[in-house]
What does this fold into?
Amino acid sequence: MPPILPIDFEKIFLYAPVGMCVSQNRIIQACNEALCAMFGCPAEDLIGQSFLVLYPSAGEFERTGARIVPIMNASGYYSDERIMKRANNDLFWCRVTGRGLLRDDPHAAGIWTFVDLSTKRPVSANFTPREREIAALLVEGKTSKLIARQLDLSPRTVETYRSKLMRKLNAANSSELVQKLLDVHSED
It folds into this structure.
């Protein structure tokens, strides 16, 4: 029987096959190689930076941060799929999952994972920040009423954005819109 090696948690974090980071008050304190590769920049360009550098816009950063708090307060963790921004400004779909380390203050400290979905779901149209947010929630299967409640909008406003998305993606109905947003490429 081979000897049991000690577990080196620092190496496990550094070489994990998914992007990972530790944050305090939405500032990146540590990140691994997979996260750096995914966002296209070295660790020294991310450590000490706000998560804002990973978002397509400041508005999306603020709204996501506000949306996360009640969900993490209730469940202790958060997960969604959203459009993020690489260092070269390319946009891509990403699954983000996090857990707050202090139950009553989710942004105080957290551990986050990031999975690049761009090979399965390319960003296929030029969306506004609000359209990106609504597209991400539609992909989660949320109704206009739920999206409106979550984003503090009227259902009519959400329907207007849904219609704009349908026109941009040339979708005939809502289910075709979601399928086009998911856009799993089988033509490669």
Observations:
- Residues 124-183 form a domain with the Arc Repressor Mutant, subunit A fold (CATH 1.10.10.10).
